[in-house]
Write the structure tokens for this entry.
Amino acid sequence: MNGDARLAALRARAREWGDQFRAAALELDRDPDAVHRHLDLPGVRHLRTYGTPREYGGRPLRIGPYVFEGTGAVEHVVVLEELARGDAGLTLAAPGPSMSGVLVDKLADPAQRAEYYTRLVREPTWTCFALTEPGHGSDASAMETTLRPGADGRLVLTGRKRYVGNAARAQLAVVFARTGSGPLGVTAVLVDTGCAGWRAEPLDTLGLRGAQLGAVTFDDLRVEPERVLGRHLSPVRRGMWACIQVFHRLRPGVAALALGIAGAAHAYVVEQRPAARGAARDRIEELGRRIEATRSLVLRAAAEVDATGDGHLASAAKARACALAEEVTLAACELLAPAARAGHPLLDKLARDARGVEFMEGTRNIQHLNLFPALLSGRATG
Amino acid sequence: MSAAAGVSAPPDHRQLYAAARDEGPAAALRDLLTRHGPHALDGGAAGHAVLPEPAGPVAGRVLRRYPLPGGPVVLVRRAPDAPPAAPADLPALLWIRFGLTAGLRTATLARLGRRASGDGTILMHQLVKAQAAEAYAGELELTAHAASLGPAGATPAQLRQLHSQVTRTDRAWLRLLGAHGFLRESPGGVAEVSELLADVYLHAEEER
């Protein structure tokens, strides 16, 4: 099929980029600021303006006869899996739209889009997506950060966020806040992190250290009303509904990151134990088959999101891929024992990274709760 | 949160278990060194050692440092010309890991019991209760099995199996603990070192 050849070409290109990421993986694990030394890698340059519309200076990726605009979830999961196979940390550390871009794409008005994308194209610009709060996780119904009218006609952002990727290095942030009670009282606002009242500091995480998860405080940060995303839309379409739609689009991407980590661990064992026989050989081959199976689900989930926006397959894919990443990295450690983690720093890093994807865009429990209604309604027939 | 009634360490390992559970890996490993001598942890299967900081008289290079609640622990690569080391006491290390699991369980239950969700706490969600009970059942099975092995102790295969299950039980608690457990100086960091103990001191399943 032509579509298969097209994606194969994209995968081959992204794998080359991922191989370059692997060379930087341990450096970035030790020093997250090392990302600044890798901004010219082709994979980082791709992520930097990924999905930027042509009218704002975005340039599609061309590989042979194929053109990739960067707007489809399927394309994105193929690229993300291969980059994460090189290094999930650098994949998440790269400047660019990342998670915030999905929300901007969905909600921003023309002026907001122009500002956002022009900045991304002009220079390496880090963005972040601030939803999770200390004490409530990503439960938007319990969100405490507020966006209230100020006396000077501007809006006042107050509150705290936690576990926000790239928070301390971001120049632009999408911040979720409460403007009133209930699901219609949640909104997102585009914040320039140079504003007074923004304070972000990195958290010392066990893995995915390149992503530099951080804690953010908004101390009466003043925001122009024009920066409320979706202000031209009804509250229904810019509140929790938009948030849920964004998660549907993001989850296949997180699943792809997990798949990349699993693939990297599997490839590492194959490389280190080329002469494995018997039970060890069987186990290595089984892990490979399981990665293939989960890849099928991830691609199918991405295609479903592209086609209908429905996210139940995305939840299934995210849950399965994150479980797989943990299982494959643990199995790899057992297959390379003794001292697999002490003596193989790259594998040790993969085992730590695998734990981190579980907490991105909802844990396994959240995904299962998302999936169940589809199961009950009959939508989850695959 | 009360200590679990179902876990009973054998007398030889009771103190190590309690130290690991209540004070963390550094205290438990220091206790082990006090009982077995300063070189009791030198015998990693591939020339590594996991030691409480300060590391003491081991001849080697510190590869990694783990800042943890209860004190830091270091991973050391022994010098190639270091004198041969006796194998570590694997059953003792297993009970240290059981103690660390108990500490992780206590920390997780306490955190989930504090976090509000709707009219109650996250801990009281049916889904969470079931997973916590499942993890705890696994822990009870592990400790019961280890305690039943008698004076001859566990075979190498049994030890590998037990350590592997400890890791998977800890991972179940860590998923419940959430992103907090992904911070280095958290119960998640302790679980990381617990995994490292198995990694460093267990031998391979087969000769390669």
Summary: Chain B touches chain A at residues 44-48, 63, 75, 77, 115-117, 127-128, 131, 160, 164, 167-168, 171, 174-175, 178-179, 182-185, 188-189, 192, 195-196, 199-206, 208 (CB under 8 Å). The first helix of chain B runs from residue 11 to 23. The helical segments of chain B are 11-23, 25-36, 90-114, 126-147, 156-177, 187-201.
